[in-house]
Design goal:
- The chain is mostly helical.
- It has one domain.
- 69% of the residues lie in helices and 0% in strands.
- It has three helices and no strands.
- Helix 1 packs antiparallel against helix 2 and helix 2 packs antiparallel against helix 3.
- It is elongated.
Length: 96
């Protein structure tokens, strides 16, 4: 396996994004029910701001996925698996 400079910790980011996707689906379903007139009660303070929350979760997921890709690029370069040109291409593709 390539890389390892960061003990593959960057792969935890992907797990976090997966958890966020699940929560996003729950919130989107709640919003859909609300728009249909059968709202779900929830005590979370953000529950009345679902559209804003959905937007921010999606934005955060994009940043996290790019961040994971950037850490991978660093990992492979610093481990000697990629040269500078490959590193620069991978980095540029994921810049935020």
């Amino acid at each position: 396996m390539s890389g390892g400079m960061f003990d593959y910790e960057q792969f935890h980011i992907n797990s976090l994004v997966d958890n966020m996707k699940e929560e996003l689906e729950r919130i989107e379903k709640a919003l859909e029910l609300e728009l249909e007139g059968s709202s779900e009660e929830d005590t979370m303070p953000w529950f009345d701001n679902k559209p804003i929350l959905i937007s921010k979760i999606k934005e955060t997921m994009i940043y996290l996925q790019k961040g994971e890709n950037m850490v991978n690029a660093l990992d492979w370069y610093m481990s000697g698996d990629d040269g500078i040109d490959t590193f620069k291409k991978k980095w540029a593709k994921n810049e935020v």
